[in-house]
Amino acid sequence: GAGVSQSPSNKVTEKGKDVELRCDPISGHTALYWYRQSLGQGLEFLIYFQGNSAPDKSGLPSDRFSAERTGGSVSTLTIQRTQQEDSAVYLCASSRDGTGANNEQFFGPGTRLTVL
Amino acid sequence: GQQLNQSPQSMFIQEGEDVSMNCTSSSIFNTWLWYKQDPGEGPVLLIALYKAGELTSNGRLTAQFGITRKDSFLNISASIPSDVGIYFCAGRSGGSNYKLTFGKGTLLTVNP
Q: What integer pLDDT is reported at residue B1 of this predicted model?
C-alpha cells in the first residue's frame, strides 16, 4: 500500500510479557517516528529514526522500551516486561526526511496495546 | 518543555453550523499543523502553515498562523456529519527540527 502500515492493529498481553510492534513506513521515507497516545491525550513523542540511526530517543519512557530500524525501512518497537500503564495506542509516522519545512509526517493507523 | 493549550476540549454542534478551535503555545513555533483523527485511525494532516500571519484554506477548512507565532486557529464552515473526530494542532519550532509538539485535541461531534 501507499501509506504507513502497522501491525498488529490490536494487542492484548499480560503484565510482565514482552511485546513487539511493527511499522512499515511509506516507501522512500528516510525519517520514521514513534508516538504514544493515551486515552484523551495528545501524541507523546517516543523516538525518531533517520535511516537506521536513532538520533533522538529522548521520549522513551524507560529502559523497558527500545526500538530498531533495519534496511532504512521497517521499524520495531519493543516493550519488555509490560506494565498496565503501558496500555495506549502506539502510532508510527514517516516523512520524506527529518529536516526542512514542507516535510510533514504521515501516520499509520496505530497499534492499540492493552496490558491486563 | 514546550506546551500547547488546545481549546475547546470538546464541541457538540448541529450539522450546518460553523466551528472554531484554537491552540496557544508558551513559546514560538515556525510551523503549525492541524490533523484530524477518526476512531481507530492515525491522524491525517489537514492544513500546514509555515509563515506568521498565513491564512490557508482546504475546502471548508480554514486555518491561520498567528502573527505572534504562538497561536493558530482552525475554522470549519457548514459542518457535516463526517467532520466528527478529534482535531489536533501541532507545532514545530524550527525548519530543521523534526519534533512536533501536539495539543491534547478537540473532540467534535456533529448532530445530523
A: 54
